[in-house]
Amino acid sequence: MNSNAKVLLVGLVAAMAMLPAGVARAGSSPTLVTGPASSVTSSSAVLKGTVDPNGAATNFRFEWGLTSAYGSAGPLRSAGDGSAAKSVEAKTGGLLPGTVYHYRVVASSSSGTASGADRTFRTKGHAPPGVATGAAVQVGLRSATLTGIVDPNGEATTYKFQYGLTSAYGSETFGASVPTGHGPMPVSQPVEGLSPGTAFHYRIVALHGGVVSYGADATFVTLPLRKRLVRLRARTLPRRDRRRPYLFTTTGHLAGAQSLLESARCTGNVSVAFVRHRRLVAARLVPVQPNCTFGAQAVLRRLRTAQGRVGVRVLVRFHGNPYVAPARARPEWVFAGRG
């Protein structure tokens, strides 16, 4: 290195040493530490941490929620523009008792954004009751029994069912109770005075310690005074199969009675029969799918085709269900064999 280069290097080092500390660190994003939660109650907690702005004006806030995805956040607050760690905190409210929460501190400045490590705390008290809406059973013309699951989570719990023509409900059963305990408990309550052939929404609701838990919305349909009529449409392909084994596929669907819920309309079984000269060649019994369609395959193994092409009649019948009357599709012909 020549003498001029040495002089330049020494001068550069001396100049850097004279820069203020804040200027030297201005390119760094905030340094954060998520601290422990304190003053934890059944519905609130104080979240703590430290923020080092690293010489740039910095804003911070706390995030919290039931998972590490958080979902709730406090307001942005200033941590200043210093170059030393500063203690910060925020109080949260409206929390559920007996519940684990995740939280962290986050901050941003002109130099970037940073997040503190994820930490957790558990609020005091018993967790809210766990609930699950079950099926409607023993459905009749004007009544039904609603079922569900309740987990008291360690505290005596009351429950009821809400029901009505929409998910706004409007009616409810009398309250009942399950004893203190842990683990799911099956419950049920009857409802009466309903209208025949009507769709109802319902859900289970449970309460303890001032905290309410709601089950998912579900539906059922009371039995009608008269079963509804539907049309059964079916088609069998191929129209002709020349080679053994003779394989035919019948598909179709139920049409009509659109005012019925699919859960009431699209249930039951469909039979598909292949008949040759009043002799049953093959038969299949298949369920109707939730979208009101069905499908069946049949291999005509007992069909004699030595004399050439043979015609087989296809008869398709829907056997009905508590809401819909039986129905038949229009008969059709398929052919097997050469000729």
Task: Report on the architecture of this protein.
The chain is mainly beta. The chain has three domains: 120 residues, Immunoglobulins (Immunoglobulin-like, Sandwich), CATH 2.60.40; 92 residues, Immunoglobulins (Immunoglobulin-like, Sandwich), CATH 2.60.40.10; 106 residues, Immunoglobulin-like (Sandwich). It is 7% helix and 48% strand. It contains three helices and 27 strands. Strands 3, 4, 5, 7, 8 and 9 form a six-stranded antiparallel sheet that branches. Strand 10 and strand 11 form a beta hairpin. It is elongated. 30% of the residues are buried. About 7% of the residues have low confidence.
List the helices and strands and how they pair.
Blueprint: H1 3-17, H2 21-24, E1 31-34, E2 45-52, E3 58-65, E4 72-73, E5 77-80, E6 86-92, E7 100-109, E8 112-115, E9 119-122, E10 130-137, E11 144-151, E12 157-164, E13 171-172, E14 176-178, E15 185-191, E16 199-208, E17 211-214, E18 218-221, E19 231-237, E20 240-241, E21 247-255, H3 262-265, E22 269-276, E23 279-287, E24 293-299, E25 310-318, E26 327-328, E27 332-336
| General form | elongated
Radius of gyration, taken over Cα atoms and rounded to an integer in Å: 36 Å
The largest sheet is: 6 strands, antiparallel
The tally of helices reads 3
Count the E strands: 27
Q: What is the helical fraction, as a range of percent?
A: under 10%
Poorly predicted runs are 4-26
pLDDT averaged over residues: 90
Domain count, please report it: 3
Question: What attributes characterize this protein structure?
Answer:
single chain; 339 residues; mainly beta; Immunoglobulin-like; 3 domains; 6-stranded antiparallel sheet; 3 helices; 27 strands; elongated
